[in-house]
Amino acid sequence: MPHQKVAVAAVCSLFGFFGFSIYAVAMELSVECSYPVGEATSAGLIFVSGQVQSVVYIILLQALTKQLTESPLATCGDVVLSWKVPMMVMAGLSTVFTCCFLIFFHTRYRRLEAEEQAAYRTGRNNATTTSYQAVET
């Protein structure tokens, strides 16, 4: 266990690398889903929701830990805790929420639809203006 610093650093780096790349996709999806609402408002609500969820998860998962017998490898205090059950609970919650998202989340892309309608109206107006200019000359 004490010689896993490189493995932990590699896993954290990979998680950060892929998590950072999905951040832009999630923000774009939030803007698409809440189109009449401003981009800053939807992003702010997502940040607040994430902070509230993290507090709830920290409290819940810490409550699920079990104290292990005394270990000579303990370097972070005098109590050694088992995080096996909280890790399994978090993995289960992540799986359930991901499945629910994939199954039930089907949204209209309202912002894209509005942009297409605006482009269609602009194209129609330009075509009408061009035909009037051709008749006048």
TrEMBL record:
Annotated compartments? Membrane
Record-annotated membrane-spanning stretches: 6-31, 85-105
Q: How does it sit in the membrane?
A: Multi-pass membrane protein
What does the UniProt keyword field contain? Membrane, Transmembrane, Transmembrane helix
What organism is this sequence from? Answer: Xenotaenia resolanae
For this protein's source organism, the top of the classification is: Eukaryota, Metazoa, Chordata, Craniata, Vertebrata
Q: What is this protein called?
A: Uncharacterized protein
